């Protein structure tokens, strides 16, 4: 009988004391990822001073989309636990869909504001690495959502791929999108706006922070599918 209990194979072969230390370190990393995601969103929201200009809404919307909603939507399935009290996988999937829908909505609004800001200011579009990678991330997010639809409605769409393979594609694409978003956020910190707002050691701290949830998300997804391959072999 299949179980809803999620388990990570990493840590097998350790002694009991080392195993529990490893478990607590992993849980601490997941908690840190939650804190960093929320903290980055709040701090960027304050720094951008939404409402002072068209541009000011862009950092707010994008941080809500990718630093908060996408992070929480993925960590929801963490084997180390989540801040949300969902025990059934069905409810987790529903909340995951809600988070990813909010990602697309917030990202689309943020994209609209930066396009409007550059148009009003008569500035060229897609001329920096941040803008190019950001647009690529948004496009990849749309493709990822389409992949998620295929996972949910594979029977109705009569797809030839098995549900397990579609879930593997979905998880892999999700990891790629999240890593793209992480690099985009880091590149945003090289912008004139951010460098004029945050300086010194504070800038270096901000530049490193997005790597924390990215490492946790990458570890979570790769471990989950390593276990699946191990069990199926």
From TrEMBL:
Pfam family, one: Cytochrom_B561
Superkingdom in the source lineage: Eukaryota
EC number per UniProt: 7.2.1.3
Assigned keywords, A-Z: Electron transport, Heme, Iron, Membrane, Metal-binding, Transmembrane, Transmembrane helix, Transport
Membrane-related topology note: Multi-pass membrane protein
Major localisation: membrane
Parts of the chain that traverse the membrane: 24-48, 54-77, 97-117, 129-154, 166-189, 201-227
Annotated PANTHER family: OS05G0565100 PROTEIN, TRANSMEMBRANE REDUCTASE CYB561D1-RELATED
Protein name: ascorbate ferrireductase (transmembrane)
Gene source species: Ameca splendens
């Amino acid at each position: 009988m299949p179980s809803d209990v999620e388990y990570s194979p990493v840590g097998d072969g350790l002694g009991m004391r080392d195993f529990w230390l490893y478990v607590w370190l992993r849980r601490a990393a997941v908690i840190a990822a939650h804190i960093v995601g929320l903290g980055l969103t709040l701090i960027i929201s304050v720094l951008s001073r939404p409402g002072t200009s068209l541009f000011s809404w862009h950092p707010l919307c994008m941080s809500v989309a990718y630093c908060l909603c996408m992070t929480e939507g993925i960590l929801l399935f963490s084997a180390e636990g989540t801040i949300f009290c969902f025990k059934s996988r069905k409810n987790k999937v529903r909340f995951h869909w809600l988070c990813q829908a909010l990602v697309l909505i917030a990202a689309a609004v943020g994209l609209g504001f930066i396009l409007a800001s550059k148009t009003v200011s008569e500035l060229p579009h897609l001329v920096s690495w941040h803008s190019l990678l950001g647009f690529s991330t948004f496009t990849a997010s749309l493709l990822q959502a389409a992949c998620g639809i295929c996972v949910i409605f594979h029977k109705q769409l009569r797809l030839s791929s098995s549900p397990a393979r579609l879930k593997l594609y979905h998880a892999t694409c999700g990891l790629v999108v999240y890593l793209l978003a992480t690099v985009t956020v880091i590149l945003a910190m090289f912008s004139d706006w951010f460098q004029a707002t945050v300086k010194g050691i504070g800038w270096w701290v901000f530049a490193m922070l997005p790597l924390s949830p990215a490492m946790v998300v990458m570890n979570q997804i790769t471990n989950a599918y390593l276990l699946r391959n191990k069990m199926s072999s």
